[in-house]
Structure formats: structure tokens, C-alpha cells
Amino acid sequence: MPSYKLTYFNGRGRAEVSRLIFAVAGEKFEDVRYEMDQWPAHKAEMPLGQIPVLEVDGVKLPQSAAIARFLAKQFHLAGKDNFEQAKVDAVVDTIDDSFKGFVPTRFEKDEAKKEELTKKYFGEELPKHLQNLETLGKLYGNGGHFFVGNQLTWADLLFYTFAQAWIGVEADCLNNFSWLKKNRAEVEKQPKIAEYLKNRPQTQF
Amino acid sequence: MPTYKLHYFDLRGQAEITRLIFAAAGEKYEDIRYKREEFPQHKSEMPLGQIPVLEVDGVKLPQSISIARYLAKEFQLAGKDNLEQAKVDAVVDTVTDFVVSYFPIHMKADEATKKEALNEQSLKLFKNLQTLQEFYQGNDFLVGNHLTYADLWFYDITETVLGVDSTILDKYPNLKKVRQSVENDTKVAAYLKDRPKLPF
User: Fold this and answer.
1) Predicted complex: ipTM over 0.90
2) Could you say which residues form the signal peptide (chain A) (predicted)?
């Protein structure tokens, strides 16, 4: 068994999907978390000066999606063959597209502008992406509530964690999307995930 | 063998990496190219109303890099095991980060603004790629010692930026070698010779 070390901030952000994968798989890893003021001292240790980074038997992997996909493949959460994995990847890319517009709304310093950006994102932009995600879930989900092929994959875990960030700002954002709500409920019901969610550190992001 | 149909505009754009993968693999596919005025009639046929879409035995896949990764895996151009595939994916994502930040400027700005943005952002990309190439023992390729879809993605993106500044890779001999390796591949070379010449 390889040794795994995941390095990120002390938050969910772009690393939580990988932590969820480890939890579902019941696999051990070193969960290194930096506070904001600790991070600058370690930046130069990371290949691209960014985190998350996964170290696998000493080999460093940057890029959160590449990390998560690798772990999902290791632990059979990526899709059962190449074509199913492609559907999972397409859902992941679409979830990522949905999240892109959210990040600037969080970092905007001008309060009035922040409110305007946030309103536009939740009112106009996000609903289009959520519609796309429901389309893919119905296209690839074989009539079930997971995004692809009637079983849990990392696409469900990624949607779960990013949606948590949206719900934290706008609690009603999934109200018009019953398929997506059911998908999150399915994820939360999984025993290893329920256990993990109960015990994980509560962080700001 | 599945039947493949690729739906895109008559551009390199987000589909060329997939065309390069088919070429390197020597695999057949239907290369559907929509004119701008034609596409609105077909938009609702696509799962997300966008192209490229790859149709595999009638099942449609959106999202350009997911399409490319799927075909790369089918045709042994993705990396030889999970860990090598992860290294290749990380390099691909690093190129994509550059595309996301530079290409919106490339599409809209005047030549001077383009050149300035390119100079700044390509420095970051090339430094990152050199770092990863070293970490992942890229020997004439970006990862390891054989062609992967990371090399093809890098090749296609640098095709576009070399059109803005033909000297941009001069300080990066190892990255120039990667382009050379792509051009030295017999099947890819034949494809490059015959494909439509498009600026983007």
C-alpha cells in the first residue's frame, strides 16, 4: 500500500473531495493542514507553489482534480470502465464550471460590489449550471440518484462539497433542483460519509 | 471498435487536442465541423448546448478535456498506470490554467495587449512545465519517455502563442524538444501536413 500525504489549508476548499474519497474508501492518509500564516513558509516546497498537493510514496502531485481522480481510480470511485470514467469526468468538469464564478464573489473586498456579484451569480449564473448538472445526472445516472451509473463516484463527492459552499451563502440555491437535492441526500446517507461528516473539523471554508 | 463522431466548429480551438489524439493513434472518426451560422440549429442536440461533443456509439460526451482524456486512455496516450496518468493529468491541468487566463485576452485584445499578457503569463506556464517535466522525468516529452496527450495539448496551445510571438519558446530548449517530439511522430506529422491551416 502506498503512503499518502495530502497538504492543504485548514479548510475544505479544493481538498475536501479527496478527504471524502479517503473516507469512503476507508484508507489512511496524513492530513496536513496549514493556517494562512503558516503557508508562506511552505510555498516553495510545492511544485507549482500551490496547494493541494498529494504526496504518494514521495512523488508530489499538484492540481486538485488530478489528485482526486487518481485517488478515485485507486479506490474504485472513478467509474467502472474508461467510458464511464469519461462520463464522471464530464460531470466533474461541469461542476467545476459552476464553481468558477463563485470564487470572485467571495474575494471581492468592496461590500456593495460583493453583494451585487453574489446576487448575479446566484440569480443568473448558477441556475444555468445546475440545470446542466441535472441534465447530465438524468443522461448518465441510469435512473438512479448518483450522477453516473447507479453508484457513488467522486463526481457525487465533488458536487456535495462545492454545493455546501453555495448553501453556506444562499441556503435556498438548490430549491428548484430536486434531483440535485436527492443526490446530496444519497451521499450523506452513506455510512462512511455520515461518520466522516460527524467527526471532521468544522472550518470557515 | 466503437464508432466515433466529433462535433465542433471548423476551428482548432477546444477540439484539436482530440483530433491530434485520433491522429497519433491512427484511429478513424467522423470529423464534423459546423459553420458558425449552422450551429444554432444543432445546439439543442448537445447535452450542455456546447461543443466539442464526442459521440461514442451514439452516446454523447461533452467537455473537451474529458473527451481527450477518454480517448487518450483508450489509445494508450494517457500514461501507463494510475500514478503516471495522474502526472499527465496534472501537466494537462497546468496548461489548461494558462488557456483559461490567457485565451480570453487573445480572442479580444489588440496585438500590443496580447503580447504583453502573453509575455507575463507564458513565463509562469513555462516555468511550471519545466518544473513538472523535471519532477516527472520527462525525457523529450513532458512526462516520462513516451508521447502522451499532455504533449499534444502543449503542442496545440503553443501553436497559437507562437503565432503571436515566434520567439516565445527560445529560452526553453527542453520545451522546444517536446514540440519536436510531437512533430517527429510519423502519424502526427502526416496529420499536421494535411490538416486545414487555421489560426485558432
Assistant:
1) yes
2) none
B105 close to A (CB below 8 A):
no
Residue A81 grid cell:
470502465
Q: pLDDT per residue over A122-165, tens digit each?
A: 999 999 999 999 999 999 999 999 999 999 999 999 999 999 99
Q: How far is CA A189 from the centre of its chain?
A: 17
Q: How far apart are CA B94 and CA B50, in angstroms?
A: 23
Flag whether residue A85 sits within 8 Å of chain B, measured between CB atoms.
yes
Q: Is residue B199 part of a domain?
A: no
pLDDT score, position B25: 98
B184 touches chain A (CB under 8 A): no
Total structural domains in chain A? 2
Q: Which domain holds residue A153?
A: 82-189
Q: Would you say residue B113 lies in a domain? A: yes
Neighboring chain B residues of A63 at a CB cutoff of 8 Å: 89-90, 93-94
A132 interface with B at CB cutoff 8 Å: yes
- With CA atoms as reference, the chain A residue closest to B79 would be A70
Chain A residues 1-60 within an 8 A CB cutoff of chain B: 47-48, 56, 59-60
Taking the Cβ of residue A129 and every Cβ of chain B, the question of whether any pair is shorter than 8 Å is answered with no
C-alpha cell at A184: 446530496
B200 lies in some domain: no
pLDDT value of residue B200? 86
Cell of B27: 484511429
Please report, for the domain that includes residue B18, its CATH number: 3.40.30.10
Q: Same domain for A183 and A86?
A: yes
Look up the CATH number of the domain holding residue A180: 1.20.1050.10
Query: Same domain, yes or no, for B58 and B99?
Result: no
The whole model's pTM is what? 0.97
The reply to whether B45 touches chain A by the CB within 8 Å rule is no
Residues B118 and B38 in one domain: no
The alpha-carbon gap from B83 to the nearest alpha carbon of chain A, in Å, equals: 7
Q: Is residue A205 part of a domain?
A: no
Mean pLDDT, to the nearest integer, of A7-25? 98
Q: Out of B73, B87, B89, whose CB is closest to A82?
A: B73
Looking at residue A73, what is its pLDDT? 98
In eight-state DSSP terms, residue A123 is I
Among A48, A59, A83, whose Cβ lies nearest the Cβ of B128?
Answer: A48
